[in-house]
């Protein structure tokens, strides 16, 4: 662990020596994490149903989804720090109760206003839960077992969203969108029982007041920047709301850095980013989650518009990638013990980039799912190998008494990466599609052609009224989408190549293998 000086008195060592209790703690925090992660992606599969249920516009439905993620990202740092002070078990249990109640309210909502309020409160509860789930692990597991536990945690964090999306699609298909909120409520109930029985009430004493100024500026900065990334593709990058969000976010971020540099006990000591481990871990997570999220934006339209699959089948098609990612996350600590954290990160990045290259090289309209499956599997394995050592690099850069902040920083990095990847790779895909479709619209009626330029889904809708050009229009849209897909894949591969070089040069220092523990987690 890092030897940075604490801002207050050291609490008794909270390390848990009983392997059974450690396993119960790990299961409990991962169940809580799964509830949070599943709620991030769950509503995506029910957008048409929500539009009908609340007589809502597409913008309102997007706010049902985005308000949760924005609230979660904005409150992670301050609530992670409060968890260190107040106590990790009280923060976890309180967050679970709030999250569960808000999820139940969302499932029973009778108006858009109630849904929005419920999603906001769910985001607050999630921001209380998520950093604690990791800080409990890093503060209570002994050094020789911590990497393995972090590997399990990162596997759930990385693959849990896909698993949650699949379960959500099943519930929407078999029942209704309201059943989407049954899953998190059940997970919350299980997590509360396990937390009360097994999670220790570790907390850290501090002689310094809580950094309210840093907390406020961090909230404003995150809201501004995430809102900019969410609203830019919808409203346009030069729209007043988009530009104001960017300005507010940048100014607040600069103010946060200045404020933290002047504090004796800052919320987040930004000087720590000079350390190789924290800097490379943060950059790696930002990039990996950005590329992963951006690829999902590309994959779903391919499955649905090119292959003609349903939402449920499209989500199921992602499961091999998710399962391999989770397995690789669990194996990463063993690889790091043999070849070092930096080499493991670099190998994962290389493998993930190779997966993108495979998908870009072999994807086609006629090749179907098998043309992209090898690339998906390589990418899943690579992402899993990268996430665990990156997360450990971030959490070990801060001392034990600041693990709530370390965990929150890890989570904020993931959220920013996700928003950034969706925005950038989505833009590359859109630009590539529009550039390719123009040369394939000869002879198509002007109205149908204009509709086709808006996107592949629009083109398929326009084809219904474009006889005798319907088949040609569908083929043109699908081939143009594949062209845009390839550009997005090559862009992602280029980013991964840059990250690979960075990690080799500035990655975390190699360390000796941890001693083997006979009692396991």
UniProtKB/TrEMBL annotation:
Keyword Membrane tagged: yes
Protein location: Cell membrane
Membrane topology: Multi-pass membrane protein
Transmembrane segments: 25-46, 61-79, 91-110, 116-137, 149-171, 177-196, 208-229, 241-261, 282-303, 315-332, 344-363
Organism (species): Streptomyces liliiviolaceus
CDD domains, per the entry: MFS_MMR_MDR_like
Record-linked InterPro entries: MFS, MFS_dom, MFS_trans_sf
A Pfam family hit: MFS_1
Sorted UniProt keywords: Antibiotic resistance, Membrane, Transmembrane, Transmembrane helix
Name of the protein in its database record: MFS transporter
Domain Major facilitator superfamily (MFS) profile positions: 25-511
CC per GO annotation: plasma membrane
Principal location listed in the UniProt entry: membrane
């Amino acid at each position: 662990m890092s030897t940075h000086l604490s801002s207050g008195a050291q609490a008794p060592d909270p390390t848990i020596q009983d392997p059974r209790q450690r396993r119960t703690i790990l299961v409990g925090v991962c169940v809580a994490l799964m509830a949070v992660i599943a709620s991030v992606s769950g509503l995506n599969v029910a957008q048409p149903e929500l539009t009908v249920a609340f007589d809502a516009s597409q913008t309102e439905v997007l706010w049902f989804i985005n308000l949760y993620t924005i609230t979660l990202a904005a409150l992670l740092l301050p609530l992670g720090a409060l968890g260190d002070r107040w106590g990790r078990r009280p923060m976890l249990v309180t967050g679970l109760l709030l999250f569960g109640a808000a999820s139940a309210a969302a499932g029973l909502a009778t108006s858009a206003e109630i849904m929005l309020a419920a999603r906001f409160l769910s985001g607050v509860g999630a921001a209380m839960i998520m950093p604690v789930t990791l800080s409990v692990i890093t503060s209570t597991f002994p050094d020789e077992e911590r990497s393995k536990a972090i590997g399990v945690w990162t596997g759930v964090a990385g693959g849990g969203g896909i698993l949650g999306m699949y379960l959500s699609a099943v519930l929407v298909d078999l029942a209704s969108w309201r059943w989407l909120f049954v899953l998190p409520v059940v997970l919350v109930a299980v997590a509360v029982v396990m937390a009360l029985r097994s999670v220790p009430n570790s907390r850290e004493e501090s002689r310094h007041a809580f950094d309210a100024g840093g907390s406020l500026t961090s909230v404003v900065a995150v809201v501004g920047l995430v809102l900019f990334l969410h609203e830019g593709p919808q409203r346009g990058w030069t729209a007043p709301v988009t530009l104001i969000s960017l300005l507010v976010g940048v100014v607040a971020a600069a103010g946060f850095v200045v404020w933290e540099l002047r504090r004796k006990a800052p919320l987040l000591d930004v000087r720590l980013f000079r350390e190789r481990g924290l800097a490379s871990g943060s950059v790696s997570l930002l990039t990996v989650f950005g590329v992963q999220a951006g690829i999902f934006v590309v994959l779903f339209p391919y499955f649905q518009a090119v292959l003609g699959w349903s939402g449920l089948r499209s989500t199921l098609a992602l499961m091999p990638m998710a399962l391999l990612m989770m397995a690789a996350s669990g194996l990463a600590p063993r690889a790091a013990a043999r070849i070092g954290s930096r080499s493991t990160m670099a190998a994962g990045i290389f493998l993930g980039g190779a997966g993108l290259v495979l998908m870009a090289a072999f994807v086609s309209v006629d090749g179907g799912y098998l043309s992209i499956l090898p690339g998906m599997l390589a990418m899943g394995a690579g992402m899993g190998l990268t996430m665990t050592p990156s997360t450990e690099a971030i959490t070990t850069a801060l001392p034990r008494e600041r693990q709530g902040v370390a965990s929150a920083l890890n989570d904020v990095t993931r959220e920013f990466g996700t928003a950034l990847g969706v925005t950038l790779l989505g833009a590359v895909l859109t630009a590539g599609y529009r550039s390719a479709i123009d040369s394939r619209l000869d002879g198509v009626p002007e109205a149908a052609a204009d509709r086709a330029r808006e996107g592949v889904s629009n083109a398929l809708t326009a084809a219904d009224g474009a006889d005798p050009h319907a088949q040609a229009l569908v083929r043109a849209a699908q081939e143009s989408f594949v062209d845009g897909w390839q550009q997005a894949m090559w862009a992602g591969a280029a980013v991964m190549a840059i990250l690979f070089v960075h990690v080799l040069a500035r990655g975390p220092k190699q360390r000796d293998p941890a001693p083997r523990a006979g009692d396991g987690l």
